[in-house]
Specification:
mainly alpha
Length: about 100
């Protein structure tokens, strides 16, 4: 469970990086001079795939954590990691469903 929580956290950090890369690319495309945000395309593609797929992994993790909370089972992960992943889920839901990016 701790390993899965860490993987979710890494995916959430990739989500933040993917959003920053998108904003950076859009700003430079408007100026007309754009060669890519990162000159290593596989790295950029990996960040985007992990970042945009993070909402599904994060949702599965949080559903599992709610199940542990309902059954009053001891959570084997740190409280701060659990709350950070939950806050990332809120941000991701807002980003994907309610923002106009």
């Amino acid at each position: 469970m701790r390993f899965f929580a860490r993987v979710v956290f890494i995916c959430n950090c990739s989500f933040i990086m993917a959003v920053i890369l998108r904003l950076y690319e859009n700003a430079h495309k408007k100026e007309g001079n754009f060669n890519g945000a990162i000159q290593i395309q596989p790295l950029e593609s990996t960040l985007v795939i992990l970042g945009y797929g993070a909402i599904f992994i994060n949702l599965i993790f949080n559903i599992f954590m709610v199940g542990l909370f309902i059954t009053k089972t001891q959570q084997p992960i740190a409280k701060w990691l659990m709350w950070i992943n939950f806050l990332f889920l809120i941000v991701q839901i807002y980003y994907f469903f309610f923002s106009n990016f």
